[in-house]
Design brief:
With 430 residues, the chain is an alpha+beta fold. It has 15 helices and nine strands. It has a domain of 224 residues. Helix 1 crosses helix 2, helix 9 packs across helix 11 and helix 12 packs antiparallel against helix 14. The radius of gyration is 22 Å and the shape is globular. Keywords: Signal.
Length: 430
């Protein structure tokens, strides 16, 4: 019998190969979709409750379960020796965006709408340690550099992430007017991050990729005939070229955000002339992750058969939702058989091992889970030690929900095939 009959991703009887068309055995596809849908529903319910804790606006940032059991609700409650206000804001916006990528229950929809209206109409965001500032007709979001400090700063990644949250959630709620103020936010981004500063203020490829993904999502929802769309596409085109040069100059660069951005830009009319480049760049993301510059073959399970690349450094048994956010989208774009198999195996492992449920209490211990924590994802011990925390942070769940929702979208385009197991058994007997 085939070792993993469910993961038949290269066509009946075909050998696994990077150019093989992606297909799944029908019963396996049905099972994995059921697992991922149930996981996404639980994670979305958890995030909804979490964001609405305390002030009912951007609460529940981090739950500590170590020596002291407590909630750190806002971005001014962070532990400053291992976190920053800027990172907290980005993670809370990511959580809101993740919620808007899945079907919303009535309660979740109410919570999301309240948060987005708060972003659109307020000038101050106490839970985020952030406020909106007008500069020469542009709207700039500034955040406190440290809790208790009057010093503020602006972040291109935050500016772009607010745009993405408004665009994504506006679509989820059927509110096109949520982007009415987006042009002034984009003007704010251009003011704090003009092209002349791209090289000078380059912090990391990943942080820049977050901005690229956010703007790519926003461009999908801006009217194509507007001057705003034209300006946004021009900025995107130049920024993509800048990041491509950075990518080519450093073989260690990789980001789930740039992987996701490539998948978003792929069907774009504005990127039509760049299709070959986008596909090559997307394939390079997969190759760097899997380390498959030479022939690569996946064996049984996510913990064996993967010996090179970024995945080898992470470890197949560890929490892998982070990179899967982008790779799941590339699976839909490239229809790469190996990638589909890797992503599905790793996602199933993440759900079974790292999502809190009544059967899996995780680091909280049996009987310690609550209605506020059920459905949450948590990190592996090695990562927690590296980050010097014993906690479940909002992005631990947001990243998994994003990865799952992107993979569920990819699965709609992957064929389910019925396998004649009796015929296979007879062939193996010969």
């Amino acid at each position: 019998m085939l070792a993993m009959l469910g993961l038949l991703v290269a066509g009946l009887g075909g050998a696994l190969g990077r150019d093989a068309p992606a297909a799944l055995e029908a019963s396996y596809k049905e099972r994995i979709q059921g697992l991922l849908n149930a996981s996404a529903e639980a994670a979305a319910q958890h995030l909804s409750k979490r964001l609405a804790l305390k002030s009912e606006l951007f609460g529940g940032y981090e739950f500590e379960y170590g020596e002291q059991v407590r909630w750190l609700h806002g971005c001014l409650d962070i532990v400053v020796d291992r976190d920053s206000v800027e990172n907290c804001v980005l993670r809370q916006l990511q959580a809101l965006t993740a919620l808007c990528g899945v079907p919303l229950s009535k309660d979740s929809k109410t919570i999301v709408e309240k948060h987005v209206k708060h972003l659109l109409k307020a000038k101050s965001y106490p839970s985020l340690g952030m406020r909106l500032q007008q500069i020469s007709g542009a709207s700039v979001f500034v955040f406190q550099k440290q809790p208790g400090s009057s010093d503020v700063d602006a972040s291109p990644a935050i500016q772009a992430s607010v745009l993405m949250a408004a665009a994504r959630c506006g679509e989820a709620l059927g509110k096109k007017n949520y982007l009415d103020d987006a042009e002034s936010w984009f003007l704010g981004l251009q003011k704090i991050y003009p092209e002349s500063l791209w090289n000078e203020s380059f912090i990391s490829y990943h942080r820049s990729a977050i901005m690229w993904e956010s703007l790519a999502v926003t461009a999908l929802h801006v009217g194509e005939q507007s001057s705003f769309h034209e300006d946004l596409e021009e900025y995107l085109h130049r920024f993509e070229a800048f990041l491509r040069r950075a990518w080519e100059g450093n073989a260690e660069y990789w980001s789930f955000a740039s992987a996701r951005a490539l998948a978003i830009r792929w069907p774009s009319k504005a990127a039509k002339k760049q299709r070959l480049l986008l596909k090559r760049w997307a394939t390079e993301h997969v190759d760097r992750f899997l380390g498959r510059s030479e022939s690569f073959r996946l064996q049984k399970g996510p913990e064996v058969g993967i010996s090179q690349g970024i995945l080898a450094r992470i470890g197949g048994a560890r929490y892998t939702c982070g990179p899967l956010q982008g790779l799941a989208s590339l699976a839909a774009m490239l229809m790469d058989a190996e990638l589909v198999q890797v992503v599905l195996q790793l996602l199933e492992k993440d759900v079974n091992r790292y999502q809190l449920s009544q059967l899996n209490p995780g680091p909280l211990g049996e009987g310690s889970e609550t209605s506020e924590t059920l459905g949450a994802f948590f990190r592996d011990d090695d990562q927690l030690q590296l980050e010097k925390r014993s906690s479940m942070r909002v992005d631990d769940t947001a990243m998994c929900l994003l990865a799952i929702s992107h993979m569920l979208e990819a699965l709609t385009a992957i064929k389910g095939v019925v396998v004649n197991t009796e015929r296979i058994d007879k062939q193996e007997e010969l």
